[in-house]
Amino acid sequence: MKFVRRNGIFVSAYLVLAVTIWVVFMIVLPQLYMVDFSFRLNLPLNEVGGPKDVYTFQNYRYLIFGRPTDEAMMNWLHLGVFFKTIVASICVTLLAFCLCYPLAYYMAQVAHGGRTRLLLLVLILPFWVNEILRAFAFRLLFASGGMINTALIGLGLTDQPIDFLRADVALYAGLSYAYLLLMMFPIYNAVESLDHNQIEAARDLGAPWWHIHLFVVMPYAKPGIAAGCTMVFMLSAGALAVPQILGGPSSLWFTQIIYDWFYQGGNWPQGSAYAFVLLIACILFVLLVMRLFKVGLGEIAR
Amino acid sequence: MSADVELDHITVRFGNFTAVSDAHLRVEDGEFFSFLGPSGCGKTTILRTISGFLEPSEGDVRIGGRSMKGTGPNKRPTALIFQNLALFPLMSVADNITYGLRVRGISAAARRRKADELLELIALPGQGAKKVGELSGGQLQRVAIARALAVEPDVLLLDEPLSALDLKLRQHMRTELRTIQQRVGITFIYITHDQGEALTMSDRIAVMSNGIVQQIDKGATVYDNPATSFVASFVGENNPFFGQISRAEAEYVTTDTAVGPLVGRNTHRLKAGDKAIVFVRPEALVLGKGANGQANVIRGTVTNAEFEGPTVNLYLRVEGNREVTLLMPHSGGALPLAIGAAAEVSFDPQRAVVLPEGVLAGE
Which neighbouring-strand residues pair with B316? Predict the structure, then answer.
């Protein structure tokens, strides 16, 4: 009520309306629609609304058990891809954290004004380039005749070009890089708000660097770290462009299967079911991590 | 264990700026030593140099005879108490206190014992489980001290620890700190801009200005026998009278000032003709001609009278358009003089110090 009084009825009404439209029409309704889709059968248009149009678990059953005519008991192909996607996303999150934490700490506590700004600029600039183009750039870098292999051969470290794409190295690198900023900024903000005197106090009391980071800095930066990890995990699990471009022949991302259901198979209900499963898995995983690290949702949002 | 601290010709430069210039002194084992000076005089720099966060541009710090060159702050036998305390907000009081022990791998049981012991010392028994946010300013002060004492340093360094506290608490903590220091018996090096703190707590004081140590002495000596005009004007209130020496004897000199000839102690062996400043403390001035006859009588007009509880500050305007301050004990009655009235004040030459011309504090 204070808000309405201070800003007037029109501004308040506009805000309420705008937020409602955004949340309801752009987030909630499409999701609900998709969930609804996932419980239906893939019927040709003329049969929609007819007697065959029933609610069923069939699409979900397919993910786990595959076709009734298949030899294997379970749909190992798709389930395998699903678990691999989750595990790989966890690895990407860890990799991004290992890269970002030292950098964020350096920028927040060690570097001084000008250098911090320069580093920020250097980090942000590549993101002005489209994500897909960046992924292609990585593909060129990691290719057999690409810069990295050329450098390795030139330095004499290896005589055959290493196939980074097949080994999924390019994929992990590309995914970590894609969401680097999303991991950086929450950690940077959290660490920057830490009183530098506390770090000095810990040092003065005799603590070696790793002890200071483990027991003074990281507990303080926990909400920021959790926020960064959450975002990187969810975006990695749901990434499509980067796995398409940088994935090797044996690596398949779950999102690619979903994509195929929609565009190759024309089976939107099936795709919706897969998408919904991915969404639930991500949410569960994030909740688990939050519980494990005793971080509340409010803290992450900060 | 306690140790002495030697500053061997320490100079600290930041680029073109010299923060500390040739500081050469020795803090005795078990002494409560203070660095006193205005903001920017270099006292914080000296403290950080002793604690190891800064390496001096020239010179060496020796603790207990051992050179500290190249030794980081985590390896030095010092513990620093920060101005804003820098306690760890996510840890309990006991965990804060025993952090240094945890770093050294001391067992949890031993840590608990030490925490209890220190909590007793700082008069906060049983408060170990509380969170940092639940304690008051004065209590947090004591926790910071306990945290530093837990690692059993040879030297405790304190960076203006009382500046954030209110007056009553500050006065209480002064006594507390002194008591703790005497009980624990280790060397305390304390920096402050508040001369009240320095005078009440310290064994000796080093007065600093612009990176230079002006005087190192016991508090009473610094107060009664200042070495430079800066020290005379910074430590406590002082009335400066500028002039030229007309007559110099072994013990006393007469200086011709705007308010007339003034006689004061010749602590710096000044001669006739030298430019000098006669410093008289406000509490050394008395109303009336006093017992000195015609010498050391200053005439002026009362411009203001401030009642400050136990004392009254009387302000006089004298010849040369200068203001002279008088400090009188409050006798319980009304103020002795009205504003605008003419007044005469005088002082005993024994209580005035004549120093060579120099820079005053605040200029």
Answer: B302, B324
Substitution target in B103, B104, B132, B158 with the highest count of A β-carbons within 10 Å is: B103
Q: What is the pLDDT of residues B243-285, one digit of tens each?
A: 999 988 888 899 888 888 889 998 888 888 889 999 999 999 8
Instruction: Convert the pLDDT of each residue in B219-251 to its tens digit.
Output: 999 999 999 999 999 998 899 999 999 988 888
Of A169, A213, A157, A165, the closest CA to residue A190 belongs to A213
What kind of fold does domain B5-229 have according to CATH?
Answer: Rossmann fold (3.40.50)
Sole residue written with tokens 């593909």? A139
Cα B194 from chain centroid (whole Å): 6
Q: Cβ(B299)–Cβ(B289) under 8 Å?
A: no
Enter the CATH code of domain B237-356. 2.40.50.100
CA gap A214, A206 in Å, rounded: 14
Look up the ipTM and state it: 0.80
Backbone angles phi, psi at B130, to 5 degrees: -70, 155
B48 — contact with chain A (CB < 8 Å)? Answer: no
Q: Across the interface, do B73 and A202 touch by the CB < 8 Å criterion? A: no
Are residues B114 and B101 in contact, defined by beta-carbon separation less than 8 angstroms? yes
Inform me whether the C-beta atom of residue B164 falls under 8 Å from chain A C-beta atoms: no
